[in-house]
Amino acid sequence: MKPTIAVLLGDASGIGPEMAVKLLARTPNREAAQLLLIADPLALEGGERIAGQRLDPLRVDSLDALRFEPGRVSLLAQDTLQGRAPTLGESNAHSGRAAFEALQLACEAVRRKKVGGIVFAPFNKHSLRLGGLTQEDELRHMQEQLDVRGFVCEFNITGQLWTSRVTSHVPLKEVASLITGPAIHDAVRIIHDALRSAGVAKPRIAVSGLNPHAGDGGSIGREEIEIIEPAVRALQGQGIDARGPYSPDTVFIGARRGDFDAVVSMYHDQGQIAMKLMGFEQGVTLHGGLPVPVATSASGSAFDIAGKGVANVEGLQRAFDLCVRMARA
After folding, report:
1. Of residues 141, 145, 165, 142, the one with CA closest to residue 153
2. Distance of alpha carbon 115 from alpha carbon 8, whole angstroms
C-alpha cells in the first residue's frame, strides 16, 4: 500500500511554497504516496504563481473526511493567513503563525494515525517563535505533541554520510555544560540504530571532540579526556563501532573520504557547516526518534531569493524520497 504523507509549505515568506509546489507537481511523487497538503490556499496560490505550476488539489474539509484520488494531492485548507498575503523576504509573525499551525495539524494527523510521515519545506525558526513556538525548535515541539519520552535528534544526511549531534539549537555559551556521557551515548546510539534500519549492517561512527584539536591532550580543555573518550569506550563495550574523539577541524575530511558512515558532533554548527559545504542543495534533515519519519531539506527559508522562482527543490526531493521509503518500511 502507498503510505500517506503530510506535506507542509514551510515559511510562506520564504522559498517554502515554491519548493513544495515544484515537488508536488512531479508526477512520480504523486504516484509514490497519498499526499495530504496542509496549507492556507493563499500561500499555496503564491507558491504556484512563483513556481509557474498549478496543482489542482482535491479539497477535503477535515481529517475525518480525508480522501484521495489517484495522482492528485488532497488539500486540507487552513485560514491561518486570514486573507492577507504573506510579505516575502522577511521573518514575521504572520507567516510564522501559519507555518506553526500547519505543523500542529500535521502532529494531530500523526496522533490520529491519518498519516505515516511528514515532509515540510523550510521553516524559519525565528518566525515560528513569533508565531507561537515555545520549544527549542520544531523537533522538540513535535516530541511534546506526539508524547515521545525518549531521546530525539536531528540527522543531517548528504549522500551516504549521516550526522547527529549532542546539542542542537541552544546558545553556544551553554554547549559545554550539556556535554555529558549520557548525552553522547544517546546521540551515538540513535544514529547507530537509524543507520541499521537504513540497511547499514555495522555503522562506523566518528565522534568529534568539543575543543580545538580535540583538547590537545588537555591543554585546550579537558572535556575530551574526562567525558567524551570514556563515553566512546563505553559504547565500544556495547558492540557499537564508535571511534574518537577526533579533532573537529579534520574529522569530516575522513568522513568525506568514506572512512565513516556517520559523524556525531558536539554542537549545531560543528557538523552543519561541514555538511552544507559538502552538499547544501542536496542535503536532507531527518528528525530521529519520532513515531513516523519527518524530513525536510537542509536549506533554510532563503528570504533573499523568495519570490524569484529560482529555488532548488532537489534537497526536498531527497527528503521526500527518504520519508516515503521509511514510511513504507
Report:
1. 165
2. 13
Q: How far apart are CA 108 and CA 98, in angstroms?
A: 16
Q: Is 169 exposed, middle or buried (0-12, 13-18, 19+ CB in 10 A)?
A: middle
Cα 121 vs. chain centroid, distance in angstroms? 10
Q: What are phi and psi of 136, to 5 degrees?
A: -60, -40
Transcribe 159-196 into DSSP letters: TTEEEEES--SS-GGGHHHH--HHHHHHHHHHHHHHHH
225-265 confidence digits (pLDDT tens): 999 999 999 999 999 999 999 999 999 999 999 999 999 99
Neighbours of 108 (CB within 10 A): 16
Using an 8 Å Cβ cutoff, are 31 and 69 in contact? no
| Cell numbers describing residue 42 | 493563499
**Per-residue pLDDT tens over the stretch 255-298:** 999 999 999 999 999 998 998 888 777 789 999 899 999 999 98
Closest CA to 295 of 261, 268, 326: 326
